[in-house]
Amino acid sequence: MNTSNNVLIIGSGISGMEASLMLSKAGKKVYLVERLPLIGGNTIKSGESYPNMDCSTCLVSPIQQEILQDENIEVLTISTVVGLSGKPGNFQVKIHKKARYIDMVECLGCGMCYPVCPIETDNNWEENLVKMKAVYVPCAGALPNVPVIDKDLCLRLNGGDCNLCVEACMFDAIDFSDKDKTLEVEVGAVIVATGYDTAKNINLSRFGYGKLDNIHTSMEFERLCAPNGPYEGNLVLKNTDKKPSSVVFIHCVGRETSGYCSSVCCMYSFKHAHFVKLKKSDAKVYNLYHDICLPDKSYQKFYLETKKNISNFIFYSNINQIEVKEDNGNLIVQYPDNKGESAIIKADMVVLTVPVVPSNGLVELAEVLDIELDRFGYIATETSQIGSIKTSRHGVFVAGCSEGPKDIQSAVIQAEATVANTISLLNQ
Amino acid sequence: MSEKIGIYVCECGPNIASRVDVDRVVEEIEKLEDFKDKELVVKKHKLLCSVEGKKFLENEINENELTHLICAACSPTDHDSTFIGVCKKTNLNPYMYKIVNIREQCAWIISDKERATDKAIRYIHSGMSRVLYQEPLYEKQLDINPDVLIVGAGIAGIEAALTLAGKDRKVFLIEKTSEIGGKSKKLHELLQRQGVTPANLKRKISKVKSNQNIYSYTDTVLENVIGFLGNFEVTLKNTKSKEQTEILSGAVVLANGYELFDSKSLENFNYSNSDNVFTAEEAEKMFKEDSKLTMRNGKEPSSVALIHCVGRKEVGYCSKICCSYLQKIAHSIYDHSPKTEILDFYKDMCLPNKEDDHFYKTLKRKSIDFIRFEDISLKGNSINYTEKSGLKKTTSVDMVILAPAMIPAQSTNTLKKMLNLELHETGYFQEPHVKINPVATNTDGIFIAGANRSPCGISEAIIQAQAVAGKISTQLIPGEKIIPEVKVSEILEAYCTGCKSCLDVCKYGAIYFDERRAISIVNEAICRGCGNCVGACPSGSIRTKHFTNSQLYQEVKEALRQGEQIND
Ligand SMILES: Cc1cc2nc3c(=O)[nH]c(=O)nc-3n(C[C@H](O)[C@H](O)[C@H](O)COP(=O)(O)OP(=O)(O)OC[C@H]3O[C@@H](n4cnc5c(N)ncnc54)[C@H](O)[C@@H]3O)c2cc1C
Ligand code: SF4
Ligand code: SF4
Ligand code: SF4
Ligand code: SF4
Ligand code: SF4
After folding, report:
1. pLDDT at B189 exceeding the cut of 60
2. Closest C-alpha to ligand 2, atom 5
3. Which of A347, A418, B280, B382 could pair with A248 in a Cys bridge, judged by C-beta atoms 3.0 to 4.6 Å apart?
4. pLDDT digits (tens, 9 = 90+) for B105-126
5. What is the end-to-end Cα distance of chain B in Å, rounded?
């Protein structure tokens, strides 16, 4: 049997997109499967990204556009892989594609449909900071710029007679006859690039999270500051229009539970410190840290600049003795200092650098693909080789944060490495 | 053939139509005074970028036999390539088309519909003036050479060679020393997390030796490289015989590695060659040769201090791997003689790999003393340090092992000059974009992998080498051709005075000087059309195709024409 010239890529973050574009340029047909209605992954959640602080949207949206316009890349959004059989060079893949209920060709992304929808629900993509409708795009500027209707919530799709979005749409783009589909495709190789989530299930009550206002995880903070975020980057204290005048970033939160250093939170906390100063130049910023992790040639400079101009750096000796409380409307961060003695910082906002963890649903996907996970739940690579991006199943490769936490550049490098492996396999 | 300009105004659904009076635009463009003698086709369309819109445009170009095309629509970043794609399906040369942005630059930023409409008309007018001066350009196809030259036979170079070499692709692997393997060959025991022995590396080296498509040259350095992606001419030189070899390759991979910071140059590190102060590399060697540490007097040390971050402040970056390799050394010492007192002096523990914390925890359970310092100085074997708590202390040990910062290899600077590359301020090679193009350089066809781009460990060097292989195997496909940029610069021979001003400003090394004719010449295969040289040339003899002075002048002149008031 001839080797297939097609490649399946699962996950459309920066790693999945980079691999898709490269393979398409090399004349391969790519099926890019993304479970969300939009492509781009986590990088589009940041307003700016370190180390050079370029605007993430400006960096990523040309890549997204190129992907959507590329005739060799078939983008399958709201889709998941549900079966993989066959062998390297000739895999058969089953993909479950959910109905969008909106015609991708007719819809202009004008946004007239969502304001009229009577149903509200939490917007998970926005870290539940805001609500969204049953017909929605996760955030401004989402690509493809076409909303999706939530089948479980829409009145019409659950026997009701609501017709509001249909009436609002001038382009007849809403199509309730759309159905979930199962596609079967043939590919020669698979690249898993399902990225990461930030930990949701660790106990943060000691840090006041969930109990007190203005305590956020770093990803929430990222969205609060982002121009494409729910508040258009307008960082304010809850239920006020006041900008925070002192913010504490607590490092290594949850590291004990995850069992590893997430390798990106030191740097993004410095980035966040910059954000605070940009929003309010006289704000006080504190990085409350234990170790500083700067794994690239340009990172120490960023750290030193932050330390010099932007933020106080305070060492804590034991994460288990940190507590966040409230006193008279102020947040009080109590921590053991460099001598082990208890000290406090007063602040009006606290940000917790929660661990990067494998993306939700990776266990199920690993079962479908029949690949092994490591003890943290990331995709395991061959143990007999150093620096391998091969998984335990021949012909299935891994790129980006689905292999372990890393910054954008390392994710892209890994993606480029999977391309070399894929091409060697397909050209055999 | 007479000129016939098609102007298509897109409504972009309500995006443009609700804020710009599209019908008035069509009407006024049709009766523009200075286009009276030209044939115009002016039409509006609901959505030009849609499948139907593209078909419409294609038919219009064909049926009307247009010679010039204007799409008044959105930002070129959105759909320039879409409309170029349409042109390519017709007989219209894509360089005879221009997009005019009346969405982002008119509809979306001006609330007054009248003024937005005026501005849109003016923009289109200005685009029409330019498009008349545009010239057709034709893409060329160049044959490529798929072979690859790799500089440096350390782990990154070896991995790149093994990944790239195949029946359609030869690899030339050159190494300055007399054996392939680089520094990783010397390592006693690879980092625990990598779970492999040097045997693994040895296997890779023997694979290189037995691969018929890999040609290894030891004792060899680069002497000269000219050319461009797909076609480099390379001169190699044997450092012993001084013999030169010419080879041809399509791409060049730099994997020339790193060196170690000289810790003796530090003021606060006072020691001499007779003291028992060693670098981690020397310690690795001792373990490799006799599985133990030995002092200068031949005895084993009963106390060892490991010092992190030596030179980190001076070089300006963290070397990323020394925390974990010192832990590996601590582990080796403990394993060999558990009674040895081990003091690990660190500033921050930088453990960015997911497996690192676990290893650190197992070490903490052993009787290793981890001491966080603020400041540290060394006099022979005696150590003065300030603890994180502020306490000043002194201690003395039998042996000190230092983790000096990794620094760029000396050859990096030589290569930079020879190949016209950029360096980062730390002295490592600079990527064109640190996040989204991390293993390339500012010259197409030249790539970087391993510790010459940033400090890194073995597994990362290997992945980077594979990344480079990924880049090369998608850019240089055996048997296929490449299409170089067509919007390049050209130097008009008659005007060039041979002043050489242009040579310095070209970042891509695309200009060479023809000594015989005493003029500068642009190599079109390398030029990216950035236009730097155009500004530098005092005699005005350089022009960038598709951005010529007359094209730009026509466009700007019309946009700035006095008369009607335009404020935005
Ligand atoms: C708060 C924060 C800030 C950061 N800031 C920076 C920064 O400034 N600079 C920097 O270099 N790095 C930064 N990082 C790291 C950066 O976000 C990652 O390196 C990068 O996003 C990794 O890209 P990826 O493609 O591997 O994964 P992701 O971006 O996570 O993309 C994975 C994609 O796969 C999809 N997916 C998941 N599971 C499935 C499935 N089963 N089927 C189909 N699709 C699936 C997801 O929906 C997602 O779209 C930051 C990280 C955090 C947590
Ligand atoms: S039909 Fe459904 S999606 Fe549309 S407005 Fe009604 S509830 Fe919302
Ligand atoms: S479905 Fe209709 S109303 Fe909604 S964004 Fe698309 S075109 Fe606009
Ligand atoms: S990156 Fe920094 S904050 Fe994050 S776990 Fe590592 S040391 Fe802690
Ligand atoms: S890796 Fe560790 S020892 Fe090396 S420079 Fe960084 S912090 Fe210092
Ligand atoms: S246009 Fe730019 S790349 Fe081309 S020759 Fe001039 S300076 Fe060099």
Report:
1. no
2. A117
3. A347
4. 999 999 999 999 999 999 999 9
5. 38
Residue A104 lies in a domain: no
Whether A173 maps to a domain, the answer reads: no
Find chain B residues with C-beta within 8 A of A170's C-beta.
13-14
- Residue ID of nearest Cα to ligand 6 atom 3: B527
Asked if B436 lies within 8 A of A412 by C-beta distance, the reply is yes
Q: What is the pTM of this model?
A: 0.92
Kindly state whether residue A106 falls inside one of the protein's structural domains: no
pLDDT exceeds 60 at position B195: no
How many domains is chain A built from? 3
Which residues have CB under 8 Å from B299's CB, separation 6+? none
A214, A313: one domain: yes
| CA of A196 relative to ligand 1 center, distance in Å | 5
How far A25 CA lies from chain B's nearest CA (Å)?
A: 7
Fold of domain B4-137: Rossmann fold (3.40.50)
In the sheet with A323-327, reading across from the earlier edge strand, the strands are: A323-327, A330-336, A342-347
Confidence class for position B193, pLDDT limits 50, 70, 90:
very low
Mean predicted lDDT score pLDDT of chain B: 92
Count other Cβ atoms within 10 Å, centred on residue B369. 12
Least Cα separation, residue B211 to chain A (angstroms): 16
User: Is the Cβ–Cβ distance between A183 and A76 less than 8 Å?
Assistant: yes
**Residue A267 shares a structural domain with residue A285:** yes
**For chain B, percent of residues with pLDDT exceeding 70:** 96
- Which one, of A21, A25, A105, lies nearest residue A63 by Cα? A21
Q: DSSP 3-state assignment of B300?
A: coil
Whether residues B434 and A301 touch (CB distance < 8 A) is answered with no
Flag whether A396 is in a domain. yes
- The yes-or-no verdict on residue B564 having pLDDT over 60 is no
- Cα–Cα nearest to A242, from A185, A204, A294, A283: A283
- The partner residue sitting opposite A26, judged by closest CB among B439, B464, B477, is B477
**Partners of B434 in the beta sheet?**
none
Pocket probe for ligand 3: among A104, A106, A112, the residue whose CB has the most ligand atoms within 8 Å is: A112
> So what's the pLDDT on residue B183?
66
Task: Check if B148-257+409-475 and B263-404 are the same fold.
Answer: yes
Q: Please report the atom of ligand 6 found closest to the CA of residue B530.
A: 2
CATH number assigned to the domain covering B148-257+409-475:
3.50.50.60
Residue B180's pLDDT band, with cuts at 50, 70 and 90, is: confident
Query: How far is it, in rounded angstroms, from Cα B277 to Cα A209?
Result: 49
Nearest C-alpha in A relative to B12: A108
Q: Quick one: how far is CA A150 from the chain centroid?
A: 20
List the CATH number of the domain containing A280. 3.50.50.60
Per the CB < 8 A criterion, the answer to whether B322 and B280 are in contact is yes
Tell me, which fold does domain B263-404 have in CATH? FAD/NAD(P)-binding domain (3.50.50)
Class of domain B489-544: alpha beta
Ligand that comes closest to the CA of residue A105:
3
**Domain C-terminal end among A355, A371, A401:** A355
